[in-house]
Amino acid sequence: MRVLVTGGAGYIGSHTLVELMGQGHEVCVVDSYANGSPEALARVQTLSNGTLEAHEADIRDTDRLTTIARAFAPEAVVHFAGLKAVGESQRQPVEYYDVNITGTLSLLRAMEAAGCPRVIFSSSATVYGEPVYLPYDEAHPTAPTSVYGQTKRMAEQILTDWAAARPEAAVMLLRYFNPVGAHPSGRIGEDPQGVPDNLMPYLAQVATGQRPYLQIWGDDYPTPDGTGIRDYIHVVDLARAHVAALDRAAAVTGAEVYNIGTGRGSSVREMLDAFSRAVGRDLPAQVMPRRPGDIAEMQADATKAATQLRWKAELDVGDMVASIWTWQSANPKGYRT
Ligand code: NAD
Ligand code: WQD
What we know:
Elements: E1 2-6, H1 11-22, E2 26-31, H2 38-47, E3 52-56, H3 62-72, E4 76-79, H4 86-91, H5 93-114, E5 118-124, H6 147-165, E6 170-176, E7 178-180, H7 199-207, E8 214-217, E9 229-230, E10 232-234, H8 235-251, E11 254-260, E12 266-267, H9 268-279, E13 285-288, H10 303-309, H11 317-330
Parallel strand pairs: 1-2, 1-4, 2-3, 4-5, 5-6, 6-11, 7-10, 8-13
Antiparallel strand pairs: 9-12
Helix pairs in contact: 1-2, 1-8, 3-5, 5-6, 7-9, 7-11, 9-11
Bound molecules: nicotinamide-adenine-dinucleotide (NAD) and UDP-4-deoxy-4-formamido-beta-L-arabinopyranose.
């Protein structure tokens, strides 16, 4: 298929490009490079056969996006472009609503102009909010607790309403759990700007000596070792879920929502121990008070994706930490090396 990929120069987008191109899809990237890198695209090209077309553009520039979409004539869009930092979204709500909502509306206008009926959307398990029960299935109530989460929930609604208004449309809303890891080649990976918010990129910088120790945000949660539990998913598995969703979007119409996780939870201490094993020494850590807004535990019920998308996560925590270490040790400063 001809696939337009917004935000393809970012972390999840770059890994998805490799899988899409590996399956023979023709891709065209639109990215503003606000948080992505042309170097990531250059490296994707070296990992893949086929050519990668890329445009530096902001998805909110509807005229530009429409021109690109009309020329490329995509059969589907994978929509990654957006802002994703929970804390920052509380401080900059207007920017988050603008990029994530105005950006999505702009994309839909460009898709309409180009006659493209299919879109795969990067949503997040954060739309569920405080768990009413676990594991979360897709029917769990949504109650986002941050501006970022609100933008994801609103964009899901906009895309669902768009599909309802167009009989030919197919919308796949993928609710990712905690994406981690890197391509096994170590050529592409997660490249956060500034101090990483998330556990695994922070730990990766502890491993290279750029940060003195991991701060464990609380060890008094009602979990077996007291630290927070998450459903970490290898970014390569996640990338493959997009290929599966694309196949599904070619076969059905309407809007569908899928949890993309492994169904298994790991604690902060378990991730720290696994990373220490990958590096071959104990990484330093200090227990700190809980991080405001964190929940104790979350895991996906990923049965629906297994049944309908015929997709299942295949890589485990060992694969996740090994690939992060391969990427981080070869590129301690990310794409700026
Ligand atoms: P990322 O920041 O690495 O990638 C996003 C890409 O979008 C970047 O390359 C950035 O330059 C681009 N972009 C941002 N604003 C843009 C704009 N206005 N116009 C064009 N391009 C723009 O993030 P990621 O981790 O790869 O996440 C991709 C998507 O998945 C995001 O929508 C994010 O909300 C969602 N998601 C991420 C996670 C996670 O933990 N990483 C979890 C759930 C959902
Ligand atoms: C995981 C665990 C922390 C950092 C966030 C977003 C979510 C989604 C994924 C986009 C928790 C602990 C972390 C550290 C720590 N993103 N931790 N020390 O908060 O589950 O999810 O990223 O959609 O929306 O909220 O991920 O990696 O920040 O935290 O102890 O330095 O690690 O308390 O238990 P989180 P995370």
